[in-house]
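User: Continuing from earlier, I have the next pair ready.

Assistant: Great, send them over.

User: Here they are, in order.

Assistant: Folding the first of the pair now:
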Amino acid sequence: MKKNYASLTLLCALICFGELQAQPTKDGYFSMGADAGNIFMTNTTHTSRQFFSYKPSIGAQGYLQYHFNDFFSLKGVAFGAFSNGAETPNFNYEGFYGSGDIRISLNLMHLIKKDMTKYRLEAELGGGGMVFTSYLMQRTGNPEPIVNRRVPQNRGSVAFASTYSLALRYQQEVYDGIYFNVGFQYTGTSSPWLDATVGEGNNGFFLPFIGASFSLKRMPKANEINVDRRTYNRLSQDVDRLEQEKNQFDQKIEMTKDESRAVIASLQQELKDAMLERDSAKALADKYKTEGGARDTDASAELWRVVVGSFPNKGLTDRFMARTRLDKSEMEVVYNETLKTYRVIYKSSASLEEARKFRDAARQEVSDAWIIRF
């Protein structure tokens, strides 16, 4: 039994150590609670589970528990009980017990589903000490029974024993931070005198119980609020998501600023180019006015002419002349009265072959240049 108890303790310690490494202790908090139930003493020669109705066997315990995280916690327990029983009409016992122990508590529900705060299934293992007094009484014809044996026998006030406890507890939250508890507990001791009789298997008792507990993490300090782990994780994820969206939005703003600067610079450059074209067109128009427009209207000789532009008004014609990169040394403008258009002549030639060469050269800049004879 001692070897199994030590192995179980070591296993629990290893599990707890692993969970403590995996889970930070920043969310630690206290809880407190109380339980009560009937005591079931293991059978001996003079005891059984038959109880006097006017003296029910009852046990109660209170505890303070510190939760390192959702899985692992330590619990300090104070326990008190009264037990009595009888197997024959001649003998019965009465016992008074008080103990204290420290327990390791593991929330098994955490292994099933993490962050489940409304439901807990705790397995408890611990050890401590007990003080007790027990009486074995023999019933006779007298109204009061005769004390046959008292423990401790040296007339001391109480006897002492070491204890170990095993418990399984189910908890369900019924209100904000308040839990309903139900469970089963076995407490074993090093003394065989719990019922004032030495016998096989009479050094422990069972306690099925119900109770309630209160989570002290629901009591925030000034200027603080408490949230459960699931809500905290959800809020943390929301904060991270909003932070990422903010960074992306900031990047888009910077990109928009850069694009706006580029667009403004491009528009400024286009404005400068337009102003330059306007000035060039004006200078070219002044030139035509100075030369009297002789070349604009001269169509006396029939030649093969390479046309690189045809426009409905003089302004568009001047703008094309200012912007084109073609050789302007022989370029001229001819107004067609019939079509009411201004034709820009790149070059003219009496030879069709030479005119075709001029056209091909012009198509490097104006893809739809064509040849006409007039």
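And the other member of the pair:
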Amino acid sequence: MHATSRPLPVFGHDEDRNGEQHRLLSLALDPLTTERLALTGIGPGWRCLEVGAGNGGVAAWLARRVAPAGSVLATDIRPPARPPDVAGLELVRHDIVRDPLPEAEFDLVHARLVLRLLPERLAVLDRLVRALKPGGVLQLDEFDATDAPALRVPDPAAHRLYRTFMETKAQIMDGEEVDMAWGRKAGAAMSRAGLTEVSSYHRFEVWSAGSPGLQLVSHHTRHLREKFIRAGMTGRQLADVRDLLAHPVFRARSYAIYSVQGRRPREGRGAPIASTCPPPPRTSTPRWRASTGPPARNSIRSWPNSSASASPRSTAARSACRCTRGRRWKREKARNAWTRSHPGRAALCSPARSARPSDSPRP
């Protein structure tokens, strides 16, 4: 594989800053990423593809999980100078937009904070899907970075400064064709790309001074300094932003981080992704009874939810039957009460029943 020359994404120009960028991303996101990857059932013998390997931390985790018989191919347009030394891990320079990629080759494909940076994200998504073996799993971890409001600030001026900084950063991203909301769009895009059993999990955090999230935001004041200056902020303002983010009082809500998984269908019906729940008994369920309910939090749906599997028509029919039985019971109750209070009239009003052969006493 080889990387062709093309303009780098918004964070890819300053090699001296990339190491710190990747270190902070690993501190902030690796626990969630590996927790979700473990849910796929990854184990010895799997063949994995890690796209946008960064410092190689996630790729090394994958290599240890698939050892000794499995392998991990990790790609990046700017691979680290000192990659992790783990058996079964191969790290190569590769442009996911333009360079060749094997098809139907991998049991698991993972990419984190890659597609949001690429104007060709949908075409790249199609390539990742084709790289999966039938039954293989794709996991995308992406931000919805449209909002990260300040929750507590030292004074109103600090609140205005933080808001100006975040709005300017959003303008920079828009100018670089970064999709700030890609995280919440990824699940629908994966379904349209042909994946099945797509499951999306997202969460927020509270950023405080010293947290990896705020350190990463502070790092951007240096990493993207020239872009901020061109967008209208001054060096003094960027320094004030760094001081604010390090203030012990300051708190902000993080970006939403989405972790989305989906499976390439097998021939015939696709096998489910691993689940944290025990499997239900196997039954022949008609296709029209497939579950439409949302997956449980922190789990991946792998079979029809029994509470949501019934069709709307059958649910309405059961409700109608319950109402009919209730009305019939009320009528019988009223008739019995009237009969007890008017025994003579009840006998006259009751229609005579004609004798039938079955009513005759048996010899």
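Worth noting for the second one:
Residues 210 and 245 are 8 Å apart (CA to CA). The chain has a mean pLDDT of 82.
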